[in-house]
């Protein structure tokens, strides 16, 4: 007797554990491949997962294999050879190896990573700086969750199934006459010819009717409400401020660099926090909060006052993002121009208002492709920030001029490291 | 069971009742007409993803965890997704009950085909072929694999994943040389094997007493110098089963490591008959499915349309490209096996004068199924081809034998073709091509320098000048040395005992010495 079994519904992912082991073993190789792949890709699909190729060297499973020597083979499909013929070695079909050559086809190994695996490996050795600071300060908000049933509550929370079930139980227990019982009785009355019997039946029907009136279909004591309980829930939210100089000196190329950096930062934060908000602040000589489209693409012109953006950020934080509830990250991109007189004010705003509430503040100085700008002396903003940093402000700053540098710079900023760019509390 | 028209199914759709009907119909034909003797069947319908899972653990439903299976999974998955590789229609496991996995996307015709092929063809072969009877234990294999899986994970818990992985890596590298090629020992009983491992562990735990280590040792006995002969005898040398030798004689392996080697060795042994009977196994299954499908069609239980669908997949399966065809990659075991089975049927029922001369035992004997069942039970690829490849089939496939000697300047010589002078030589060569004895390198442990530095000495007997691939050989020897924990040397010698090459490998230091 045969058993026929449907295994299709068995839990999948039987090979998951082996796959994890393989990835763990090949980690450094895969990581290298992921970095390489991600550089060639557009940032938008950078984290889409997908195929990577790794050299098979470390993953090779050696066996004793024989090669060379004299070979004998029997082949099908002889057309013209007779015994004693000689075949030329090079370039003829018959010299094809009859066994599948494993050695060559396997020296590079391609396989597909899922999105999560890709992101994990991509950001594996990166770490959010200064996480500890906010961990203690994290407030707890309240969430609600289901917690059984209750006899009182709002009508919106009536649990119909539970109520009907209890009503049914009560009706059965109290022997409330069922409708079909009474229908049957009525039918018998209608058919009945004998007066006495008819009277008895009518009396019985009346009795049943009275009883069913006494025992209601649904009684208030049947009604149940769904109960909810409040539970404390840790906050896992972050806000990311994108500050950018959009004055005329910022070229499309520079904006593109900044955008890429912001995207990486977003993905990175998204991995840590359930909820990430982004605030875009662009500035010329005055700052405004804008949506993403305007931020990156809409033209603006004017002078450059960095302090205006910092002031705007400070106000938004004060209004909407209580530092106790939010992890605040900020990244500023600029070509480094700033009006000379603004330096003092910007420095003050930064050290006194912004940095104390920020988890992390990064300054990215973007330059024209080719990087010639950096051969000149440091820009005014760079000089200012550099001075602040040297005096102990927790600032991270880097210069970028090529698209390919974005990831290395990002990587460099968030690398796991000993307390280095960390400042006084 | 069947509906009024007597058809098993209409169109391509099937459900589980259809499968049951198909199975019963196939069983009827297989038992009554073909006289097959099979293990009880268990038919499991699986998805493509589950098929990929099965691929990566050598087709077995459960297996211990190891990264190399993950690698194969990733590889198969990538090539499947890109459409480079189709998946098999079925996988069948040599166990009792015999488990066949069918892909859910097969059509009803394909399900009939694979049930006939796997659940009856392969199943009969597994149950009756002498190699499988001798070397594998179909009743115990699933339990043993379960034991192996648990044992490996317990070891990982106790001794660390890295340690276990290293031992398994080494064992896997030597897997192809962890096989007993010659019968003589008793047949493996995997259930007993599993109990034995458990008892041994328990015993060790019970009698463990740390005090014994402090008991002073007696004066060392003066070591009598063993003669070489005696020493080799004590160690059971020469020994070609390298894993067995290490399990029994490696000086510094922990008991659990020996058990791991034993597990790998048993599994290698379980698969050994399959590699020796590819042509016969597939030939049998293909012949059986062809007979069953034809009979069902004749009985009117399969429509003409469905039968044509079957014929198309059947001809794809038994297609043998010629040597100069770009699709050629050696002999197709399905094609060769099926052709030979049909040929034997022809010889038994309708022989020609030539066949009577070549096959006096079976020519004209009638009862083709009796002859075939006997063949299926008592031969492996090498002896099967060596005995039953007929001149007619050689002519039909236009076989010829090439001899490629690198020394020969003129090129590759055509040594024999499908003519009166060449039949026997072509047949002998083809049989040799299917002899694992010639395919696998012949490596054996010949000696251990017990009195000196405990170096392990292996010989590779080189056949026809074909030496080992250097990179791989070094890596495998490295694994071997790590298990042996002293130097290992491998000497390649030719038929005249001339040394062609010598490898010496020292063990890597163990990072965290236990």
UniProtKB/TrEMBL annotation, chain A:
NCBIfam families: PRK05325.1-2 (NF003707), PRK05325.1-3 (NF003708). It comes from Bradyrhizobium iriomotense. Belongs to the UPF0229 family. Residues 85-106 are annotated as: Disordered. PANTHER family: UPF0229 PROTEIN YEAH. Pfam families: DUF444. InterPro entries: UPF0229, vWFA_dom_sf. This is UPF0229 protein GCM10007857_17630.
Automatic annotation (TrEMBL), chain B:
It holds the Pfam family SpoVR. This is SpoVR family protein. Residues 442-495 form the SpoVR-like C-terminal domain. It comes from the Bacteria. Residues 13-436 form the SpoVR protein-like N-terminal domain.
């Amino acid at each position: 007797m045969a058993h026929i079994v449907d295994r299709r519904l068995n839990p999948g992912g039987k090979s998951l554990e082996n796959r994890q082991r393989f990835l763990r073993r090949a980690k450094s190789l895969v990581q290298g491949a992921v970095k390489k792949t991600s550089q060639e890709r557009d940032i938008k699909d950078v984290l889409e997962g997908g195929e990577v190729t790794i050299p098979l060297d470390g993953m090779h499973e050696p066996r004793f294999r024989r090669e060379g020597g004299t070979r004998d083979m029997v082949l099908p499909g002889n057309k013209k050879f007779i015994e004693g013929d000689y075949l030329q070695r090079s370039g003829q079909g018959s010299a094809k190896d009859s066994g599948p050559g494993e050695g060559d086809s396997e020296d590079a190994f391609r396989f597909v990573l899922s999105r999560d695996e890709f992101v994990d490996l991509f950001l594996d050795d990166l770490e959010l700086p200064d996480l500890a600071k906010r961990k203690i300060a994290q407030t707890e908000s309240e969430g609600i969750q289901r917690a059984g049933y209750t006899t009182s509550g709002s009508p919106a929370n009536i649990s119909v199934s539970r109520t009907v079930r209890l009503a049914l139980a009560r009706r059965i227990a109290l022997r409330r006459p069922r409708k079909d019982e009474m229908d049957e009785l009525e039918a018998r009355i209608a058919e009945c010819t004998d007066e006495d019997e008819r009277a008895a039946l009518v009396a019985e029907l009346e009795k049943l009717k009275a009883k069913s009136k006494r025992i209601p279909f649904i009684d208030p004591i049947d009604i149940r409400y769904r109960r909810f309980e409040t539970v404390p829930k840790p906050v896992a939210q972050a806000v990311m401020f994108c500050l950018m100089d959009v004055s005329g000196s910022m070229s499309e190329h520079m904006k593109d660099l900044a955008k890429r950096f912001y995207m990486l930062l977003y993905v990175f934060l998204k991995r840590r926090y359930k909820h990430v908000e982004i605030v875009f602040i662009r500035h010329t000589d005055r700052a405004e909060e804008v949506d993403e489209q305007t931020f990156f693409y809409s033209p603006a012109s004017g002078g450059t006052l960095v302090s205006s953006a910092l002031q705007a950020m400070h106000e938004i934080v004060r209004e909407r993002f209580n530092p106790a509830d939010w992890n605040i990250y900020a990244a500023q991109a600029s070509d480094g121009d700033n009006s000379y007189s603004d330096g003092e004010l910007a420095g003050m705003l930064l050290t006194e208002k912004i940095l104390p509430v920020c988890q992390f503040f990064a300054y990215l100085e973007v330059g024209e492709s080719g990087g010639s700008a950096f051969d000149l002396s440091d820009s005014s903003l760079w000089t200012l920030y550099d001075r602040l940093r040297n005096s102990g402000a927790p600032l991270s700053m880097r210069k970028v001029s090529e698209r390919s540098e974005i990831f290395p710079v990002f990587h460099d900023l968030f690398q796991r490291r000993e307390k280095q760019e960390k400042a006084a509390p | 069971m069947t509906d009024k028209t007597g058809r098993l199914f209409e169109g391509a759709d099937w459900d589980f009742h259809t499968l049951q009907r198909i199975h019963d119909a196939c069983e009827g034909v297989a038992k009554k007409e073909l006289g097959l003797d099979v293990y009880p069947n268990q038919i499991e319908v699986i998805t493509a993803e589950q098929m990929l899972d099965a691929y990566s653990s050598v087709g077995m439903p459960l297996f211990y965890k190891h990264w190399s299976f993950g690698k194969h999974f990733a590889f198969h998955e990538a090539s499947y997704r890109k459409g480079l590789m189709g998946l098999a229609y079925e996988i069948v496991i040599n166990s009792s009950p015999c488990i066949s996995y069918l892909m859910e996307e097969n059509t009803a015709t394909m399900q009939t085909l694979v049930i006939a092929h796997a659940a009856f063809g392969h199943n009969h072969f597994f149950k009756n072929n002498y190699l499988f009877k001798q070397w594998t234990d179909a009743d115990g294999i699933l339990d043993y694999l379960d034991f192996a899986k648990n044992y490996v994970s317990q070891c990982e818990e106790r001794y660390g994943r890295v340690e276990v992985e290293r031992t398994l890596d080494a064992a896997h590298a030597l897997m192809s040389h962890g096989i007993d090629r010659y019968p003589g020992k008793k047949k493996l009983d995997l259930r007993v094997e599993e109990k034995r491992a458990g008892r041994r562990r328990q015993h060790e735990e019970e009698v463990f007493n740390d005090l014994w280590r402090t008991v002073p040792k007696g004066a060392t006995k003066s070591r009598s110098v063993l003669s070489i002969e005696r020493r080799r005898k004590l160690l059971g040398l020469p020994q070609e089963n390298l894993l067995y030798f290490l399990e029994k004689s490696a000086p510094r392996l922990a008991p659990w490591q020996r058990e791991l080697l034993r597990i790998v060795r048993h599994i290698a042994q379980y698969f050994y008959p399959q590699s020796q009977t590819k042509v016969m196994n597939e030939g049998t299954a293909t012949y059986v499915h062809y007979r069953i499908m034809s009979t069902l069609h004749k009985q009117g239980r399969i429509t003409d349309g469905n039968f044509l669908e079957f014929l198309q997949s059947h001809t794809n399966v038994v297609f043998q490209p010629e040597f100069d065809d770009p699709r050629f990659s050696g002999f197709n075991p399905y094609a060769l096996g099926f052709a030979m089975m049909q040929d034997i049927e022809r010889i038994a029922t309708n022989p020609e004068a030539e066949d009577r001369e070549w096959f006096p035992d079976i020519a004209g004997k009638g009862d083709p199924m009796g002859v075939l069942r006997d063949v299926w039970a008592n031969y492996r690829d090498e002896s099967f081809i060596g005995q039953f490849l007929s001149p007619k089939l050689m002519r039909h496939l236009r076989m010829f034998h090439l001899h490629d000697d690198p020394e020969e300047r003129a090129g590759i010589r055509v040594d024999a073709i499908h003519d009166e002078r060449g039949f026997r030589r072509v047949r002998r060569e083809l049989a040799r091509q299917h002899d694992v004895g010639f395919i696998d390198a012949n490596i054996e442990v010949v000696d251990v320098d017990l009195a000196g530095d405990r170096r392990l000495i292996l010989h590779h007997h080189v056949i026809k000048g074909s030496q080992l691939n250097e990179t791989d050989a070094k890596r495998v020897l490295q694994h071997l040395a790590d298990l042996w924990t002293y130097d290992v040397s491998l000497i390649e010698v030719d038929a005249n005992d001339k040394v062609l090459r010598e490898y010496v490998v020292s063990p890597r230091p163990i990072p965290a010495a236990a």
